[in-house]
Design a protein that fits this description.
Elements lengths: L2 H19 L7 H8 L19 H9 L4 E4 L5 H17 L4 E5 L11 H12 L3 E6 L9 E6 L5
Parallel strand pairs: 1-2
Antiparallel strand pairs: 2-4, 3-4
Helix pairs in contact: 4-5
């Protein structure tokens, strides 16, 4: 049995289970996400014999949208900030947020270099729940805040 046949069997069995349960509104998380972000498959790439699906339209719409949740770390120590970011990211993930903002401040009142920016950046790099991230635009804090796209699949 090749992969296409496996997918066909899975789709048939899923449709049967929906019909048996009488829940026509049943949809997987992935299907809801694709519909929400208007991701549509491209025309099949006949060179490889496989359809190509583009997720860039969904990604671009998430990047343009305002964050659903925000955390302000002004006044936190480095250790407290890491704990608070961890709690915030986990809670945001469990609530289904796709994009969040973490405000660190620019570190203008730090004795040496901006401490919270480095702490938060290192946390975001190692967290399995965080996908892409970067500095906010100037209007939303510039280098004093991060936007973060949350990840809903395993690394």
């Amino acid at each position: 049995m090749d992969f296409g046949e496996i997918l066909d069997e899975w789709d048939k069995s899923r449709k049967k289970s929906v019909q048996k349960s009488g829940n026509s509104r049943y949809r997987s998380d992935m299907e809801r996400w694709l519909d929400t972000h208007e991701v549509t498959p491209k025309e099949p790439d006949m060179k490889k014999g496989l359809p190509v699906v583009s997720g860039n339209q969904g990604r671009e719409s998430i990047l343009r949208m305002e964050p659903q949740r925000q955390l302000d770390l002004h006044g936190f120590t480095s250790a407290d900030a890491e704990e608070e970011v961890d709690r915030f990211i986990r809670e945001s993930h469990s609530r289904g947020a796709e994009k969040v903002r973490v405000i660190t401040g620019k570190g203008l009142h730090s004795a040496a270099e901006p401490v919270l920016q480095k702490t938060v950046r290192l946390y975001l790099e190692k967290s399995a729940l965080c996908g892409e991230f970067g500095y906010e635009n100037k209007k939303n804090g510039g280098r004093g805040a991060f936007w973060v796209l949350l990840r809903y699949r395993s690394r």
